[in-house]
Amino acid sequence: MKISVVMSTYNGQNYILEQLESLRKQSRQADEVLIFDDRSTDETVKIIKDYIAEYGLTGWYVSVNEQNKGWRRNFMEGMWSANGDIIFTCDQDDIWRQDKLATMSSLMAKHSEIKLLTSNYCEFFANGKRKVGPNENTKELKQITLKNNYLLVGQPGCTHCIRRELVELSKKYWRPEYPHDALLWRLAIFADGLYTYTDDLIDWRRHETSTFAKESKDLKTVKEKKKWIMTAKSFDDTLWRYIREDVAGETSHQEEVLTRNDKWLAEREKFYQTKNILRGIWLARFWDCYPRYRQYPAEWYLLFIKRK
């Protein structure tokens, strides 16, 4: 089973060496490590090139985009260019446990039903704090089943191992506003092929300058929340097409979930447009569709207190 690692980089000079070291020291080596730099303005590319040359790393390649693509397109097009039977997505600032590739590739080889495999992670912060999530480290393989809050992506893309067939299918359904991990997670869960291994195979760096932190902060505004609702409606449309054209077998449960989410998003959009209190109370009927329960009271805060 051939393994590809796809990394997206941008101005990562402060942390990139630790990630490169963790990839080089894997007990099961990747067959190719493809690094796509989105026109960094710091020393990121030089650090990578020097590292590859220093250790004579065959199968490791770095390329600089002709123009800035943004992390969504950079990851997707990078994955589409990979040759592996399974593909790992890799951020520039994390640290992988030495047995990550070996553990996950072994599980993928043994379980053909897995389309996308995730793992636990250990969040670590500049102040030294560490926290394992999202599950206890019981070292079990578990299926993640489809629920009404399907828009929740429970584990970040840096924990994902994706079967090539799913990556190929993503070409049909990706849109520029879709994060790579959100699309692949949802394609997998709607086809009953999403699994997780409950062991923290990665140290996930959390810091205020990360893209994740910046976009999470942006979502705490009315303008960005409205944009998120439109993207979520687009995902619903995409997944309706997906279950009709590419999901084998009985799909009644998937249809029920999408129907409920269609209604929830329509009501949510109207609440933001009208700020009608009765409509907001009615929206509580769809509590189970929110990725996180606290997001329902947060709607009220944004519309009637913060108002930005």
Task: Explain the overall architecture.
By secondary structure, this protein is α/β, with parallel strands linked by helices. The protein folds into 2 domains: 205 residues, Spore Coat Polysaccharide Biosynthesis Protein SpsA, Chain A; 88 residues. The chain is 44% helix and 18% strand. It has 11 helices and 10 strands. 35% of the residues are buried.
CATH class of the largest domain: Alpha Beta
Task: Write down the overall geometry.
Answer: globular
What percent strand? Answer: 15-25%
Helix content: 40-55%
CATH superfamily of the largest domain: Spore Coat Polysaccharide Biosynthesis Protein SpsA, Chain A
Computed CA radius of gyration, to the nearest angstrom? 20 Å
Q: Encode the helix/strand succession as letters.
A: EHEHEHEEHEEEEHHEHHHHH
What is the domain tally? Answer: 2
Secondary-structure class: alpha/beta
Q: Which CATH architecture of the largest domain?
A: Alpha-Beta Complex
Number of strands: 10
Low-confidence stretches: none
CATH topology of the largest domain, by name, is Spore Coat Polysaccharide Biosynthesis Protein SpsA, Chain A
Identify the quaternary structure here.
single chain
The rounded distance between the terminal residues' Cα atoms is 50 Å
Average pLDDT level: 95
Largest sheet: 10 strands, mixed
Q: What's the tally of helices?
A: 11
Structure characteristics:
alpha/beta, 2 domains, ten-stranded mixed sheet, about 300 residues, globular
